[in-house]
Amino acid sequence: MAPETSPAAKSKRPLSPHLQIYKPQFTSVLSITHRLTGIALAVGTVLLAVWIVVVATGAPDLYAGFTGFLGGWFGRLLLLGWSVALFYHLLNGIRHLFWDAGYGFELATAQKSAYAVLFGTAFLTVLAWWFGLMMEFR
User: Fold this and answer.
1) What are the structural domains of the chain?
2) Whole-prediction pTM value?
3) Cα-based distances in Å from 27 to 9, 69, 80, 118
4) Which residues are CB-neighbours of 95 under 8 A, at least 6 positions away?
């Protein structure tokens, strides 16, 4: 016969660590962000596939409507988010490749590479959008 556990006995058991106990650390936030940007890239790829289908149909009205949507404020916001996700996921993926090779595990190096990923993401996003907008206004 198994011993009975009373509610008082259950309350004295140690709890497993979970998100409510630990405060978010910089590296854990970047790791979660890496996963979220992967999801955003998948959604953005669906948007790209829809654009390719619209172009392939050869329907000028459908194409004008879709490019009008992407050229509007909400479409541009989606494209901006997709480009941020693309550059972040790319740079953080390179960082992970270095980790897979056994480099960059020291705390100071991990912190520096994390800031490099964030700076690189901002720089490449601004550069890509600046270049894209300059080409648009030619």
Assistant:
1) 27-136 (1.20.1300.10)
2) 0.80
3) 36, 36, 24, 12
4) 104, 113, 114, 116, 117
Instruction: Kindly give the residue spans of alpha helices, DSSP state H, lying in 72-105.
Output: 73-100
pLDDT at 10: 61
The 10s digit of each residue's pLDDT in 65-122 is 999 999 999 999 999 999 999 999 999 999 999 999 999 989 999 999 999 999 999 9
Residue 103 tokens, joined: 């480099």
Residue at 55: amino acid letter: V
First to last CA, the chain: 83
Output the six-digit token pair for 130. Answer: 């600046």
Structure tokens at 123: 């720089």
